Task: structure prediction
Amino acid sequence: MTSKVATLSEAIGLIKDGDSVALGGHTLRRHPMAAAAEIVRQRKRDLHLIGWNSGIDFDLLVGAGCARIAETSYVGISGFGLARNFRRAAEAGSIEIREHSEISALDMFRAGASGMAFIASSVLMGTDVPATNPRIATVISPFDGKPYTAVQAAHPDVAIIHAHSADRHGNVQLDALHWPDNDADVFVGWAGKTTIVTVEQLVSDEAIREHPDFTILPRDAVTCVVEAPYGAYPCCCDDRYTYDLDFVGDYYAASADPAGFARYLDEWVFGLADHDAFLQKVGVDRLLAITTKGAL
Amino acid sequence: MAVALAPATTEEIMSVALSRQFRAREHAFIGLGTGDRAFIYAVGIPTVAAQLAADRGVDFCLQYGTLLDPSITGIPDSLGDPDLLDWECAARLPVERCLDVFRRGLMTCSFISGAQIDKFGNLNSVRIGREGPPKVRLTGPIAQADHAVFAQRTFVIMPHERRVFVDRVDFISAPGHGDGPGWRERQGLPGGGPDKVITDKAVLGFDAVSRRMTLDSVHPGVTVDEVVAATGFELLIPAGVGETPSPSAAELAAIRGRIDPTGKLLQARIK
Amino acid sequence: MSKVGTLEELVDLVKPGMSISFGGFAHSLTPLAFVRELIRRDIRDLELIGIAEAWAADMLAGAGSLRKIVFSNFMFEGFGLCRNFSRVIETGAVEFEDYSHFALASRFSAAGLGLPFATVRSLLGSDLAGSDDGVQRVRHVDFTSPFGDERVMLLPAASPDVVVIHGHRGDEHGNVQILGATAVIEEQARAGKTVIATVEQFVDSAEIRATPNHTVVPGLLVSHIAEVPYGAHPTGMFRLYDADYDHIRQYAEASRDPAAFAAYLADVTTGDHQDYLARLGVRRLLNLRVDPHFGYHLERTESGWRA
Result:
C-alpha cells in the first residue's frame, strides 16, 4: 500500500488557481483552518469556494483575495456578527455569491458523494435563492407533473476536510464522540475529485483497525493525508478542543478594515513559515486551555 | 418562600407568549445559533417557552440542531463542540437525517428570524438592497429557508423596528405568504408558513383571507400607536386589540429560579 | 478546606530538613515539575527515601538539595548511571543507606499498615544491612522467629514527612488516577505523613467515580493536589505523552560534568512551569504524543512506524 502522507505545503500545492475548492466544517466548528492558512500563504487566486455552513474559513480566504466565487448557506463569525471581509467583498462586488439553504448545500455534496446528477425536492421553492445559483434549477417531475427544485451535484476540484486521525494509507477516522453538524464533511470528502484530509494525528495501522467503524473515508476516497495538530484552530474540533473565542475576537477586530486585516495576515499567516510556527506563536498555554480534559 | 418579584422583562413576556403556542404531539425545532440579541431571539426565548409549555404538561418532541429531546435546562455554558457533546439527550442525529426531518415534513413548528420581514411574513437574511452589489451583505439563507419551506408553522421572533418591518423584503430567503392568498400553494410549498410573529412590542398573526400581518396584542406598557410607528407597512389592526398577558408570578419564578437562573438564555450569557 | 492548590503552594509544604519520597519509575510518572520548583526555591538538607524515582534523586543530588539518600536502586534506564547521584555518594557529600527494593518497599508497607517494623529476609547474607564486625549500615535487628528458630531481620517502618506523586487525573477531593504500571506509588502514598499530588488534569468527581478502577491513590490519603500539565516531563505518562528522549539524552550528557549540569538546572528552573513548557515549545510537546493503540510514541518512517 502506498503512503498518502503529505506535508501541508505539498497538499495545498495540488490546488490550481481557478479551482473549485470545498471546505468542510460548520460555523465555528472544524473548518480546515491550517489548510486555509496555507492556501493564503501560497497565494492561490480565483478559487470557487464551496461550503455548507461557512465562517472564518471563507472570511479568511475572501479577505486574503483568494476567492472569486463563494457558494454556501452561511458566512458569519457566529456570535461576533457578520463576516467582515466577506461582507466588504460582497458589497464591493468583487466576489460572486451563490446562495444555498442548509439542505441545498448538503444536497450538492450528498449528490456528489453518491454519484447522483441532482437531488430534486421542494427545497428553496418560493425563495429568491435559485436565481443566484446556476446549480439550482426547477424541474417538472415526470411522475406527478409538479415543479421541484433540483440541486446539481458538486464535484469540487479539491475537497479539504479536517478529521481526527488517519493511518499513513489514508484511512480517515473521527473519534466516537463527534458533533453531527461536522459530519457533512463525510459527503464533502467523498464528493471531491481530489480530497485532502488534515488530521489531528497520524496513527498506526493498528489504531485504525482497532475501530474500523470509526472510519469515515477509506483510503481510496482520499488523495492525501496531512498531520496538522490543532488544524481547526481557532474553531472547535469535536471532543478534542473547543474554540478560542479570544483569538476569534481578535481576528474579528482586525477584520474591521482592510489595513487591519492586512496586518493580521502579515502577523499570523505570511509572517509564519508553516502551521508549526503558527501553533508556536499561539503558544502552549493557550492550546492547553482549550484542550478537552478527562479523556483517558 | 414569598419573594417580591421584579416586573417581567420584555424577553420574559415574549417567552410566555410563545409558550402558549406549543401543542401536544408537535415536533419543534430550535437552531443552535450564537450571538447576543440574535441568540436571545433564536434560541433563548424559544427555549424558555418550550420549558414553560413542558411544565404545563404539553407533550412535544424538541429538537435542538441535531439533538433530540435534550434536557432543556441543561443547555451548556458554551456552544463549543466539547460542551455540546456533554449535553444529555435522547438522540444525536446524523446531520443529513436531521435535515431529512425537515424535508419529510416531520418538523411541525420552528422558530426563525431575519434582518427584514414584510407584511406577508417573507424573511430576508441575505442582503439589503435589491440590485447589484448589496448595500449590506448579511449571513445567508442558512436553515431558515428550509424551515420556512417545510415546517407546518413557523414562529418568527424579531426586534420590532421600522427598518426591519418593511413593505417588501429586498430578497426572499425564507418564504412567508409570498404576495398573498394562494401564493404558497402555487409555489408548491409543503409547509404552512409563518403563524405568529413575536416581537419586543407585540404578538402578530396573519389574516386568514388576505395573509397580511395583523396585530394580535401589544405587550404591557406598549401602545398600538408605538407598534404602528415601528412598522414600515400598513398593519391590519382589528378592533379591540388587547394586551399580551403578563407572565404569572409562578411563571416568573420558574423562569428566574429554575429555567434560566444564570441569564444564559434570556440575557445571552453563553459563550 | 479545599485540597486544591497551585504547584507553588504545594511546594511551600516542604521545609529544609524534611524526609521526602517521590513517585516515578524509570522514565515515567515522576513529579518533575515539583522537583524543579523545589530546586528553584533552593530547599536543602532533605532526606530522600527513594525507591525507584531515579530522576528526582539525580536532579536533587545535582542541585545539592540532599543531606541523605535512603534507596534501593537508581539508574537511567538505557542511559547508564545516575551521575549526579553517584557523584554525591562518591565524594561523601551525602549520607546514604542501601536497601534491596523489596526491603525498602516493606518499610513503606509497614508504615502504611501502622506496624512498628517490617519483617524481611531480603537483606540476609549480604553486606547491605551490616557485617559480622558489628557495623550497622542500615538500622536493623537480627531476630529469631518466635514460631521456630527461623532467622529474620526487622527493619523500622519508613514514614517520609512528605510523599509527592504525579498522576494522570485527579479531582478536588484528592483522588488520583494513574494508568499503566504504578511501581511502588501505593505503598509510598500510604506511608507518607503528608501526601501531595500533582496531576495532568483535573476532572469532575463524577468522572472519577465513573472509572473507580483507575483510582490508584484515594483522596483520603492526599492532603494537597494541583493540576500540572506535562508535570512529569521529561519523563512520560502512559497513554498521554511519551518520555522526551532527546531531552533525556541532553540531560545525561550535561550530568557528566557539574558545571554543565549547573547550566542545565539554571535553564530548566528559570521562571515557572508555564515558562518551562513555553520554552519547550508546542512542536516538541506534540512530538511526544502517543499512538492510541500502542500507548507510546511512534516514529513515522518511509516504510512504516518505529517505536
